[in-house]
Amino acid sequence: MRPKTYTLMNTLFFLLILSLSAAGCKGKDNPVHSDPDPAPTGPKADVWLTRGDKSAMLSPQGGVRIITPSTTNWPLIKIDTSTRFQSVDGYGAALTGSSAWLLNRRMNLADRQKLLVSLFDTTNGIGISYLRLTMGASDFSTGDFTYNDLPSGETDYLLEGFSLSRDLEDVVPMMSEILAMNDNLTIMGSPWSAPAWMKTNGSLKGGKLKTECYDTYALYFVKYIQEMKALGIPVSSITPQNEPLYFTAAYPCMEMQASEQLQFIKNHLGPAFDQAGLETEIIIYDHNWDITDYSISILNDPDARQYIAGSAFHAYGGNVSAMTTVRNAHPDKGLYFTEISGGQWAVDFESNLMWYMSNIFIGTALNWSKNALMWNLILDQNHGPRNNGCQDCRGVVTLNTVTGQVTFNEEYYAIGHFSKFIRPGAQRVSLIQPQSLLDIGAVSFINPDGTKVLVVANYGSQMRTFSVVQGEKQFSYSITAKSVATIKWN
User: Fold this and answer.
1) Confidence at residue 62, expressed as pLDDT on a 0 to 100 scale
2) 67-110 confidence digits (pLDDT tens)
3) Whole-structure pTM value
4) What is the pLDDT of residue 42?
5) Cis omega (within 30 of 0) on the bond before 3?
6) How far apart are CA 483 and CA 54, in angstroms?
7) Annotated active-site positions, please?
8) Measured by CB atoms within 10 angstroms of the end CB, which terminus of the chain is less buried, N or C?
9) What is the mean pLDDT of residues 405-413?
């Protein structure tokens, strides 16, 4: 900011600074796209911006000029698309039973279609490309159930009574509408519990899978995948158990220690998938960052690992770097991020946006994740419907069932900065960031169509300007404090 009083030398120094800065700074509310190229025309990189103060919400900012690489006055980010890392499966959330129920039962067709466009359309929405489904009930369902519930004392080892009937009420119809809008989706299935009769305690809550039911439970997965496919819903991957080390909840849950998951996959689930000719991937663990030995110990087994695509993580404990720890132990296996929820315990949009970038989106990508998923896609104004779980969780979208108003939460914009621009099959590419940009988070990708994407988050309290060079292209950009920008170019 110009000082109130200054000498002639101050004036000359100030003018020198202005000449070096090319465009200068017009204040935190008006970012300037610093551009060393005075040419009025030429190729441009497109920019979309979300500010922590909500003055821009995934808003297009026009283009920044692309020039031939030259000397720059700004810190230089170097992108090398010839050095590539993990491929991207997609970004999104979970279509829980509660989310599907709200879409199906509390929205009319016109309003629902409008919302689905905002969520899944790549042109007029954020283009969500990955959904997680709960296999049976979870803590966000309209009640407890599995696909083979029996009266106490009865068994069904051949699963003759297996039925997706509860999913046919809401989940399947909503998935069909979503796939009709965007069929380029990766779909994951995760169970919270095996049927009670297969468990040591005879309950959907707690207990373990009986060893004599391992084959039957493997068949349970096969039937789920086959019957969903017959309904037009291709399940690309499954996890054997959601949060296998949290088994004291008041909602469906089940203990499955690493040694038990290893035996289940190696001797039952993996062979069952092979015998059925399924291409659905098996992804292990599906729990918090605070434990890495679970995944590593299973992948250390040569017979089990042949059936396993990789390991999934949640963010309710530990640090995102745990994903790299597992990757370093088994670099040929994928990493996946499958759950985190916002809620009333954190209601500041700016802080949440920055945390999501640092940890869930930029953070997981830099730690080898092939995806990033939030928890509930949609919840209502009362944080539900709930099934004895989290009392104040927030969905990606909130639907007020009284007024019909839809609120797009910070989770929506965080997902959108990735899902809209970084498409399935993209690859993360090399990005070298100077030490002078320590308050900047950045990750870059190349899409299957050859377009390049850079996502940048300014975690600091001051506007930052930087230059980017990629091959024979260079551009400069100024990003406001506490903001996220996605930059895309050919």
Assistant:
1) 87
2) 999 999 999 999 999 999 999 999 999 999 999 999 999 999 99
3) 0.92
4) 83
5) no
6) 9
7) 243, 339
8) N
9) 98
